[in-house]
Amino acid sequence: MNVSFHKRKIDDVPYEACAVFDVNNDGHKDIISGEYWYEGPDFRVKHKICDVRAITEYYDDFSDYPLDVDGDGYSDIITGAWWGETLRWRKNPGRSGDEWAVFDIDVIGSIETIRYLDIDGCGVPEIFPNTPGGPQRIYKLICDEQGRGTGRFAKYEISKGPSGHGLGFADITGNGRIDIVLADGWLEHPENPFTDAWTFHPEFSFGLASVPILGYDVNGDGLCDLIVGQAHNYGLDWWEQGRDAQGKRIWTKHEIDATASQYHDLWLVDIDLDGQPELITGKRWRAHNGNDPGADDPIGLYYFKINGGQFEKHVIDYGPAHQASGAGIYFWVEDITGNGYPDIVAPGKDGLYLFENHGLAKE
């Protein structure tokens, strides 16, 4: 049986990132995208966050991650993008309803997008910008003695040279530590991620890879494999981790889907509640203002049953832009409606959509 979704257009806004969190602490999850947030539970009341710089078809907002940066009990937003070259946070004004003040964390160069992981187990996620032309960095929120954010961040540089287009997290070695996957290799997580050196292993080359690259044991052999989309070309593949006759680590490419281009953002979520995660992704429409291979193809949103490596594609939405939705650069998967099934919020240059997950459809 397929999962049934109800599609709803929230707004015509052209931002490519979004998030879900309780903005005003009223107990309802809200939707955030670009310059606006939409009040849950019906998302019909719209509030201005702040102005976001526009550049041709783009907006300087390639992630909208919730984090209480200043420890006041309200979730703020971490963001950054290509042109501004600056990692920033937007301060949630709380009950005042004012527009959100914007603070620079660091000027670091062009940011493809940003991902987040609690790399040291402190309970607060660290910030990992993907800056293709620069080294990989980690930004750690500095907290006070009560564990509350102070509005300040510590910066750690863990690689040298360009990190390339692509970033993900995976326990490559199987030792319980999460390693960092880049476009042309992976960084091995040392015992102390902030003081010890990260060893780079140049074992593959993924081109302009998705953000994120996903780590998952696809075939159940106990080794962590990698799921990689082509962010600016056709292709979605999984790379099987194995060993050669001398015991050296090797990677074997397996095709998942070659029919769609611009698989930029990927999620692993149990969308049908069968106890196994599904791969959720879609086409980012006009990722390079229409200059990518397949740019004029129909757009779509999909989930894949993994099935031990025999990936089975299910269409959530498909068709021409402005009729169907893709996945943007930073979409969101979370149960918003409260029925237990994860819903999908899909931003993009053609609008902001909510796909309400109604569970398995009766056939």
UniProtKB/TrEMBL annotation:
Pfam families: FG-GAP_3
InterPro entries in alphabetical order: FG-GAP (IPR013517), Integrin_alpha_N (IPR028994)
Entry keyword Signal: yes
Transmembrane segments: none
Keywords, sorted A to Z: Signal
PANTHER family noted in UniProt: PROPROTEIN CONVERTASE P (PTHR44103)
Designated name of the protein: FG-GAP repeat domain-containing protein
Taxonomy of the source species: Bacteria, Bacillati, Bacillota, Bacilli, Bacillales
